[in-house]
Structure formats: structure tokens, C-alpha cells
Fold:
Amino acid sequence: MKLLIINGPNLNLLGLREPGIYGFKSYASLCHMIREHAKQIDVEVEIYQSNHEGDLVDRIQAAYGRIDGIVLNPAAYTHTSVALLDALKAVEIPTVEVHISDLSKREDFRQISYVRAACVKTISGYGLQGYLEAMDVLKELLTCK
Ligand code: DQA
Structure:
């Protein structure tokens, strides 16, 4: 079973970026946590980050036929991107939407998620742990398939 973890814009600046909201851990430590968890639950994992919407679309398209499940934090593109929604709908790969912060407690413009309509679940407000929970959700879902 192979999972793809995709992070959108500015998540490469974790640790530096608004630590009061996103915490003090770096993007490198997030990747380390994900790799360790993948070993524990016995899944293969690929990790990808881009600040560019089209690159994120390309990576979702390239997952077709190769990847069993996607963990996606589209970051700011959550609230703007029909292109990411369409890419997820096209490939039909089970996807869990993750947000480090609790979107329900933030600004009005963060209350809309375009990708949500193509996701099996949304995990928001559990910090970096949310990525690991999303991996567990996909492992369970794909094992029961
Ligand atoms: C985020 C929330 C988004 O609103 C924001 O633009 C991000 C990160 C989160 O993980 O909490 O960049 O997706």
C-alpha cells in the first residue's frame, strides 16, 4: 500500500511561520514523523510539497494508477482551488484533507474548502498529529476495501 502526502504553499516554512498557529516544529520534522509512522503502520510513503498550484495538480494526476491513498493539506489553495478539486475527482484516489490549525475557529475566508467535496474525511486542528491520523484512516479504509 502506497500513500502520498501532499503539502501546499508555505508549509515548507513550518516552524518559522506563525508558530502560534502552526507550532514550532519544522517541515523536516513533519517529514520525519510521517516516515516513522509509515514504518509503524507498514505502508510505503511519498512526500511532496509545492508552493505552486499547477505542480500540485500535476502530482495528483501522476498519482493515478500508482498511489492508493492521498493525505492532502492544500494550505491556502484549500479556499480557492477548483483545479485541485477537479484533479482529485479525476483520479478518484481516496483522499483525506488535513489542516494543522482548526479552520472552524479562524477567519470567514477559511471556512470554504473546495477540495472537501472530493475527500473521504477532513482532519483539522490536531497539529502535525493530524497527518498521522489521516494515514491511519487511509490504511484502515484501504485494508477493508
Ligand atoms: C492550513 C490552513 C490554511 O487556511 C492556511 O492557508 C495554511 C495552512 C492549515 O494547515 O491549518 O496555509 O491548511
